[in-house]
Every structure is written in C-alpha cells, then in structure tokens.
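lol so apparently i was supposed to do this last week
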Amino acid sequence: MTLVVDGRRVAVAPGLSVAAALARVGDGVTRTSVSGMARAPLCGMGICQECRVDIDGRRVLACQTVCRDGMDISTGLPQRLRRPHPEPGDAP
Ligand code: FES
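anyway here it is w/ FE2/S2 (inorganic) cluster bound
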C-alpha cells in the first residue's frame, strides 16, 4: 500500500501501525517538541502521546493507527531536521 509522508510517496506492507511505517520508511520521527527537538514513539501503547501526527488533517496517535492506503501523514518536522530517507537500492 502507498502512503504520503510529509509530501513523499512511500510503499509499506499492509497491517503496519503508522508508527511502525514511519520507522520503516525513514527516521521514525513523529513530531517536534515545543523547543523544536525531534520526537518519536516511546510507549507504543497510547499513553505517552509522543507519536502524535496529522493524518488527513486529523491529529492521531501513530502507534494506535493502522495504515490505510492513501493516507496523507504530516509530522510537521522541518525538512532541515529530517535525515535523508533511504531509497531502494541504497546501501544499508
Ligand atoms: S508511542 Fe506512546 S502514545 Fe504512541
């Protein structure tokens, strides 16, 4: 299935949570703190709220949301803070 993550189209396996998908296709960052630091999922069970993302304009918890084809996910992370996403064929 295909998702759009911060404007970038990515392919992920069905059945993943959004948090798992973000970790698989990039750096796993879901949001920034009030001081601008990158944040990522911590508890994985809906408690810590570190995995908040906007999906199709709604704020949700990435660890509690299963991917659907065509989801438009926004982390709000400025591009300058994001590590480059690996592309198919890139060395690990
Ligand atoms: S990782 Fe803690 S609420 Fe999602």
